[in-house]
């Protein structure tokens, strides 16, 4: 196992998409960056997807993450919102897969549990715990970026432990694990 690696965490969204980066040296986490992509000004859904892809590629090409942790969409009552969220997640995943970066999905409750010990924790509770864990001086106004960071930290905490998550190392891996989704 590498002694140093970078993990990019992604919280997919079509209004605001959150990103967080950590560096792991030996077994110690180090905060690198919080970021968000504000998509509210775009009305065209396909343009939003393009912006998500471009920003994710930009982060990958700038920071060279070794792994990507992404929050899996949760099942809500609004089917249209879920479809849009799933597309946003898929586009971010496609960006990582296009650069051959392994991707792991985590359910929102699993991320919250890993960070706070409570799978029903609020965004604010997750953000405050991350602030303490990583020594972040100021929290952002929108907590989507801390949600992205939480996915990266959850991935670090789950390293080497069996998890009920899906890992993809490329398109072939994705297709093999999702035969029901591929025609």
Give the fraction of residues assigned to helices.
40-55%
Structure classification: alpha/beta
Largest sheet: 6 strands, mixed
General shape: globular
Structure description:
The protein is 44% helix and 22% strand. It is of the alpha/beta class and 183 residues long. Strands 3-2-1-4-5-6 form a 6-stranded mixed β-sheet. α2 links the parallel β4 and β5. α3 (108-116) crosses α5 (144-157). The chain is globular. The mean pLDDT is 89.
Helices and strands in order, then pairings?
Elements lengths: L3 E8 L4 E10 L2 E11 L6 H19 L3 E5 L7 H20 L4 E4 L1 H9 L6 H12 L9 H14 L9 E2 L2 H7 L6
Parallel strand pairs: 1-4, 4-5
Antiparallel strand pairs: 1-2, 2-3, 5-6
Provide keyphrases for this structure:
single chain, 183 residues, alpha/beta, 6-stranded mixed beta sheet, 44% helix, 22% strand
What is the structure about, briefly put?
With 183 residues, the protein is of the alpha/beta class. The chain has helices spanning 45-63, 79-98, 108-116, 123-134, 144-157, 171-177; strands at residues 4-11, 16-25, 28-38, 67-71, 103-106, 167-168. A hairpin with a 2-residue loop joins strand 2 (16-25) and strand 3.
């Amino acid at each position: 196992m590498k002694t140093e690696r970078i993990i990019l965490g992604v919280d997919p969204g079509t209004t605001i998409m959150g990103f967080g980066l950590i560096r792991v040296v030996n077994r110690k986490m180090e905060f690198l960056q919080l970021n968000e992509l504000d998509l509210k000004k775009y009305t065209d859904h396909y343009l939003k997807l393009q912006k998500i892809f471009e920003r994710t590629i930009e982060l990958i090409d700038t920071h060279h993450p070794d792994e990507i942790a992404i929050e899996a969409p949760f099942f809500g009552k609004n089917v249209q919102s879920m479809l849009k969220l799933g597309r946003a997640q898929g586009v971010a995943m496609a960006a990582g897969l296009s650069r051959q970066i392994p991707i792991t999905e985590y359910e929102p409750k699993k991320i919250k549990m890993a960070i706070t010990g409570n799978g029903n924790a609020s965004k604010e509770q997750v953000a405050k715990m991350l602030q303490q864990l990583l020594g972040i001086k100021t929290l952002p106004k929108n907590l989507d970026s801390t949600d992205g960071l939480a996915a990266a930290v959850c991935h670090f905490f789950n390293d080497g432990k069996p998890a009920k998550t899906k890992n993809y190392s490329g398109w072939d891996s994705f297709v093999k694990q999702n035969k029901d989704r591929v025609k």
